[in-house]
Amino acid sequence: MRFDRLVAVEPTDLDIRAGEFFSLLGPSGCGKTTLLRLISGFLKPTTGRILIGGRDMAGIPPSRRPTALIFQNLALFPLMSVWENVAFGLEARGVAKAERRRRAEALLELVALAGSADKKPAELSGGQRQRVAIARALAVEPSVLLLDEPLSALDLKLRQHMRHELRAIQRRVGITFVYITHDQGEALTMSDRVAVMRRGRIEQVDTPERLYEEPATAFVATFVGGSNLVPARVRRKAGTECLAETPLGNFRARNPQDLAEGAEGLLFVRPERLRPAAGHDNRIRGRVVERAFEGPFLLFTIETSQGQRLQVQWLNEGDVHALAAEVEVGFSAGDARILPPGPLADER
Ligand SMILES: Nc1ncnc2c1ncn2[C@@H]1O[C@H](COP(=O)(O)OP(=O)(O)OP(=O)(O)O)[C@@H](O)[C@H]1O
Ligand SMILES: [Mg+2]
What we know:
- By secondary structure, this protein is α+β, with helices and mostly antiparallel strands.
- The protein has 8 helices and 20 strands.
- A hairpin with a 2-residue loop joins strand 11 and strand 12.
């Protein structure tokens, strides 16, 4: 998709399965909303096709597509009651008033707002208003619900609560949800699958578990979850593993993309996979330069004698106060991967 000379979304083959909770995750400006507007029909693709349920959507206006869209900043009609808001789209479709009321009540029950039909939006909390917006979008019986950062206006606590609500609603109605967010926590907790986008390009499409455990690029590794990256070179290959040469020493690591001997890359280990050194072949010694007590965890930064800083996360098992000024951390080859060099996420 082009806007003059700017390519907002590169040509992409993306297959979203019927009935799945699918998230588009990426930093601001990477093209998420553009992709959603292409699916909903508010934008015409410069090239390529959009198919929904196998049907080519070319020439079909948004109102005739089997989609409904919930915007970044939703707006309910303040003077209408909750049920009238929900039933709004049905009037235009010629549904009689008694039937509109009946369907609105059923949808309000679905989003756990059964008693609120006659209230005004102003009498509801932010999360409740959000659920009214969802009920309103579902009223026209879409087969795909498109949600553009629908929780961004809510405070943190409510947002976390709504993650579970949204997921539960999706399971109940069983339709496809395409959910946009730049919050990796939201994407990981709610989705069946996630597409990570960077600058109009999809970097990886995978389940939350695989995105976290098997990031395909340095960008995905740094955008999703905490990360440590150390410049490395493949010194010797051994099956699916390799010996990685780094300024901190040589380490055994997985080589999932089969980088050739001599190839440059980045050695990647998550902060919680750097554990107390005992029992590990891969070891790194460093001085503790920062520490943050997080209750269940201790987060700390170590600096090696070469000046490399590494993030470490240890579970609080009652002994974290005893953290020495100098520590040795270790990791298994299975918890380390060598990734091809590439841009990192600079915004989380
Ligand atoms: N109508 C338009 N005309 C020109 N450029 C546009 C238009 N809409 C979007 N863009 C540009 O396309 C790129 C992608 O924008 P898009 O709104 O899809 O990003 P996004 O991933 O949804 O970001 P955010 O998380 O901030 O909402 C941006 O560089 C944006 O400036
Ligand atoms: Mg957007």
